[in-house]
Amino acid sequence: MKSELALKNDVEEELRWEPAVNAAHIGVSVKQGIVTLIGHVPSYAEKYGAEKAAQRVRGVKALANELDVRLPGSHQRTDEDIAAACVAVVAAHVTLPAEGITVVVNKGWITLTGKVDWQYQKVTAAAAVRYLAGVIGVTNDIQLAMHPTAHDVQDKITAALKRSAEVDASKITVEARDGKVALHGTVRSWAEREEAQLAAWAAPGVIAVTNDIAISP
Q: How far apart are CA 82 and CA 112, in angstroms?
């Protein structure tokens, strides 16, 4: 198992490696495998990029992203302008429904609500607005429409995990009921844990995924 110092160094190196992040303004602390990012960045996109970079590092069990978004003068926009840009980018995205997603902006923070058919649409909606100028944060409260759940949804997810080159399916168990899936077991990294969750979300009829997989490098 990595020492806290080694894990801290690895996270710092990954932040420097990530081209979308300026690591000079980001501090890293580690305690019992929990990584905390502190400091300030000029955009929410960079805050998100730092979070994803840290999650890629083996040995990270949990992450607290306490980075503060400080927009430069050129990126500051009114809530009305941000809302209009959000509506336009969502409407222009071919994989998102023409109706069903509502946008609320409060002091640069975007809240998405509404209902879509698939988890990937919920994720796509957040990704579409994340990189707009003036955004300091995104809350994704979009709900998934209930679909009849196939009796073999558990088998479908298990089969998908076995097909994945990124996941050791032998160490993961799947429970499914009424469209809600629970994942248990252990994996080697945060990235592998996330890959298992993505596989579960891809199954038809899934409306919620609880990821209780532990990370054991």
A: 13
- Relative to beta strand 34-41, strand 68-69 is parallel
**Of 45, 135, 126, 53, whose CA–CA distance to 93 is shortest?**
126
Which tokens belong to 46? 């960079």
What domains can be seen in the chain, in order of their start residue? 4-69 (3.30.1340.30), 75-144 (3.30.1340.30), 153-215 (3.30.300.130)
Closest by alpha carbon to 126, among 98, 93, 99?
93
DSSP H helix total and E strand total for the chain: 6, 12
Cβ atoms of 121 and 97 within 8 Å: the answer is: yes
Alpha helices in the chain (DSSP H): 4-17, 44-55, 79-92, 119-130, 153-163, 190-201
Residue 147 predicted with pLDDT over 70:
no
Secondary structure letter of residue 134 according to DSSP: T
Q: Which of 3-7, 71-75, 99-103 has the lowest mean pLDDT?
A: 71-75
Q: Tens digit of pLDDT for each residue in 148-205?
A: 554 567 888 888 888 887 888 888 999 888 888 899 999 988 888 999 999 888 887 7
CA torsion 158-141-66-44 (nearest 10°) is 100
Judge whether 203 and 157 are in contact, CB under 8 Å.
yes
Length of the chain: 217
Distance CA 89, CA 83 (A): 10
Residue 26's pLDDT is what? 96
